[in-house]
Amino acid sequence: MQNVMKSIVLLLLLLVAVTGCNRRTTPVAAPLPPRPPGVTPSDTGVATTKPQPVDERLPVPPQPLDDGGLSNKTLDDLNRDSPLEPVYFVLDSADLDDTGRTTVTRNADVLKKFATWAVTIEGHADERGSAEYNLALGERRAVVVKSLLVSLGVPSDRIRTVSYGKEFPFDPGHEEGAWSKNRRAHFVITAR
Amino acid sequence: MQKPLLILGLSVAAVLLVTAQAPPASQQPAPSSQQPSDVGVVIRSDGGRPPQYAVPDVVALNAEAAADAKTIGEVLRNDFAFEREVDQIPRDIISTIPVARTPEQVAFNAWREIGADAVLFATASKAGNTTTVRVRLFDVRGERSVFAKEYSDQRGTNARLIAHTIADEIHEQQRALKGVARTKLTFVSDRVRERLITTVQDRSAKEVYVADYDGANERRITSNRQLNLAPSWSPDTSTVIYTGYRFVAGVGDVPDIFASHLYQGRLVNLTNGRGANYVARYSPDGRLIAFWSNRDGNEDVYVMNADGSNVRRITNHPASDSSPTWSPSGQQIAFVSDRAGGATPQIYMMNAADGSNVQRLTIGESWADRPSWSPTTNEIAFTARNGPAYDIKVLNLTTRQTRQITNGEGSNESPVFSPNGRHLAFMSSRAGRVQIFTVGVDGNGVRQVTRDGKNEFPAWSNGPGDAGK
Fold first, then answer.
1. Do A139 and B276 touch (CB under 8 A)?
2. A136 vs B292: CB contact, 8 Å cut-off?
3. Which residues of chain A are within 8 Å of residue B338 when distances are taken between CB atoms?
């Protein structure tokens, strides 16, 4: 029984050591896991005196900025509830209005904060005009948004564009209420 | 993906003209210089109207041939009705005439009384897998056969193709008309309703299909469960090029121009991720492909060799230039540009070689896009805004007159001409979900081609796509 207990203790210690090692190689840190119960330095069998409380704090790499848990989400979860907002357009236009520029600026701030993220900007169009023409319109919308992001300091190699034209409407309706939602540059996070 | 291609190849190659039985001699010249036959009698009506054809049911000489006989009769009537080159005696009137089981039994007097100028007599027999069809077209007034041929389908798989071949050959011999009964359409469809797995959005894959011109024999030619758009045929009908979105992990969807060589089971990426590449069309001689790309930072028209080599930029304008289409000579390319500004895309043309001599073609349209050049007339079909929706119009480049083909039934777009220039295929929302339709260039004879799922981006082949090519 004693031997079994000892083995368990040793295993737990090994685990602590391994996870500790991993943490040192990972640039992003989380708090140390709580010490497993019952494991104290005296259990290692090398301590001769009672352990002294150590004043020196263990160095902990800085937590990322408060991100609302974004860095723990999967890419799919991130894209389902994206911090990057869509940018909307008027009919047959790839010009950004003030609202659009503000949205792009906010997205630029997010992309600067999460400097490892790569995104694809999808250009979309409403159902008016031919499917072929709307591919070109969607491409232009995506490129316009990319250009503004780059001018705001987001490296261009982190941004790809693709056009889906009118193939994937976000709202299947056939009136302006739906169309206005479908004329957009939509952000997809592809890597982080 | 390989399997449907193989089936398509076999079925298209299946008809063998075993014997071309010499028809009754005539000294009159053939109606068409392309017609090598020594048959020359052209059946005409009494007055100036189109000749009246009677196309009774095909006689099944044995029970095994019954199904093929029925199909061949139906398809023949449908093919004649499609070209509207001859008038057909209604079936209820045909049924009043005694059925002939041999050519000698054809009741010329009875046919003459009901006003038939021509009567078709056909028999079908089947032995094993081989269906044999013998066809005669009789001139009712002269009581003589002006067309006589035997067709054999050794695989027993495609009675429709036998009928289409008969229709095309009679149209050619009698009307000097290059019929389209053996041509094919390609289009994209979301009918399999496979959700794209590469996005968190609810989006369906669209796959490329081919079908006979009348919608029969639909076959899927892509199965990549991604977005595939804007397919188009090579002039020899051996290859379909399309815009395929290839998903690359960590990168996302990359739209490229793919070439699917249908009878080789070979798929080639022609643009290989150099920028985003869309909406390609072969030149009429099949040696070049025009498409548009943003590879130099802006939407411009490019031309490459058919194998993807030697890409050169043809337009160089800060506006968006897209949707290229070739003139029949291959010397010009028409395209769409928003360079006029103000949310009014218009159609332009330029020299295909270097993009020089740009001319705006559409005047007085608030929105004109997706041009398609007629192979036979100096005309361009396009999509035009008409109120809240879009209609198909045709611009005559000689007279600069525009005529309207569709008239506000749903929204209509993306017209393409049939190879004989007499029909257009287009997509329309008139039946609810968007479907492929065909219509005569006079705006008459609208037919719905597809029904399953949503079907878009039609393109019309020049021919049947023989596997041997």
1. yes
2. yes
3. 92, 136-137
Domains of chain B with bracketed CATH? 2-175 (3.40.50.10070), 184-460 (2.120.10.30)
Cβ-defined contact of A130 to B250 (cutoff 8 Å): no
- B260-314, pLDDT tens digit by residue? 999 999 999 999 999 999 999 999 999 999 999 999 989 999 999 999 999 999 9
Least Cα separation, residue B106 to chain A (angstroms): 52
Q: How far is B136 from chain A (nearest CA, A)?
A: 46
Global ipTM? 0.85
Contact of A191 with chain B, judged by CB distance below 8 Å, is answered with: yes
* Per-residue model confidence (pLDDT) at position B251: 82
- What domains are there in chain A, each with its CATH number? 2-44 (no CATH), 70-191 (3.30.1330.60)
- Does residue B208 have a pLDDT over 50? yes
Structure-token pair, residue B352:
């295909």
8 Å CB contact of A143 and B251: no
B370 to A133: CB separation less than 8 angstroms, yes or no = yes
Predicted confidence (pLDDT) per residue in B390-412, tens digit = 999 999 999 999 999 999 999 99
Q: How far is it, in rounded angstroms, from Cα B65 to Cα B59?
A: 9
% of residues, chain B, pLDDT over 90: 81
- Burial of residue B114 (number of CB atoms within 10 Å: 0-12, 13-18, 19+): middle
**Closest-CA residue in chain A for B280?**
A132
Report the C-alpha gap between A101 and A81 in whole angstroms: 21
Kindly report, residue by residue over A48-104, the tens digit of the pLDDT: 556 666 566 777 766 555 666 777 788 899 999 999 999 999 988 999 999 999 999
